[in-house]
């Protein structure tokens, strides 16, 4: 691992377990340098009336020869599957004359997955910061009830 500041935008690590193959990152990338292939599998869950379809990842690659390091994919992923890691260990040297160096900058999912180990933990919360609203907010009551309710909760006496 390179000796870089922990928040360096070095490479993008893929946490495969979080990836739902939603394709948002590939669509939002301004440079079209994320390549995703997938297929759909249909499963019958025990006790379920209908079979369920799920996307299975076949390929996830980032072309670092084109990447702008803008971070849009990391921000756009709704499942926290993409993270910056302070590394830059691309091969990218090609043959003796440099042939093939650009192609070597395409990093596949197995390499992207190894960079997950280099992702730094999130910074600690600022002790002076206000608590997050979702940790302190009380649920609003329905008009006329005067009390907070879960959606769909039965009213007293029904
Ligand atoms: S950092 Fe930007 S250019 Fe690079 S893969 Fe992500 S969205 Fe695309
Ligand atoms: S946005 Fe996230 S979950 Fe969706 S395909 Fe990209 S990495 Fe996977």
What would you note in describing this structure?
The protein is built from five helices and five strands. The protein has helices at about 25-30, 70-75, 100-105, 110-115, 135; strands spanning about 10-15, 35-45, 50-65, 80-85, 105. The longest helix has 6 residues, at about 110-115. The radius of gyration is 22 Å and the shape is flat. The termini are far apart. Residues about 145-158 have low confidence and may be disordered. The structure holds iron/sulfur cluster (2 copies). One iron/sulfur cluster binds near residues 19 and 22.
The share of residues in helices is 10-25%
Number of strands: 5
> Which structural class fits the helix and strand makeup?
alpha+beta
Shape: flat
Radius of gyration: 22 Å
- Output mean pLDDT: 84
**SSE order in H/E notation?**
EHEEHEHEHH
Number of helices: 5
Q: Low-confidence runs (pLDDT<50, min 5 residues)?
A: 145-158
Main β-sheet description: 3 strands, antiparallel
Ligand roster: iron/sulfur cluster
Span between termini: 63 Å
Strand fraction equals 15-25%
Which strands sit side by side, in order, in the main sheet? 2-3-5
């Amino acid at each position: 691992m390179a000796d870089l500041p922990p928040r360096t935008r070095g490479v993008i690590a893929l946490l495969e377990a979080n990836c739902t193959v939603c394709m948002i990152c590939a669509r939002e990338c301004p440079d079209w340098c994320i390549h995703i292939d997938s297929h759909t599998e249909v499963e019958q869950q025990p006790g379920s009336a209908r079979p369920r379809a799920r996307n299975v990842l076949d390929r996830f690659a980032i072309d670092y020869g084109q990447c702008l390091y803008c971070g849009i994919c990391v921000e756009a992923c709704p499942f926290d599957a993409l993270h910056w890691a302070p590394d830059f260990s691309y091969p990218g040297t090609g043959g003796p004359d440099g042939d093939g160096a650009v192609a070597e900058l395409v990093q596949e999912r197995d390499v992207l997955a190894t960079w997950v180990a280099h992702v730094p933990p999130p910074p600690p919360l600022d002790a002076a910061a206000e608590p997050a609203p979702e940790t302190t907010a009380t649920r609003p009551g329905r008009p006329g009830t005067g009390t907070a309710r879960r959606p769909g909760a039965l009213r007293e006496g029904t």
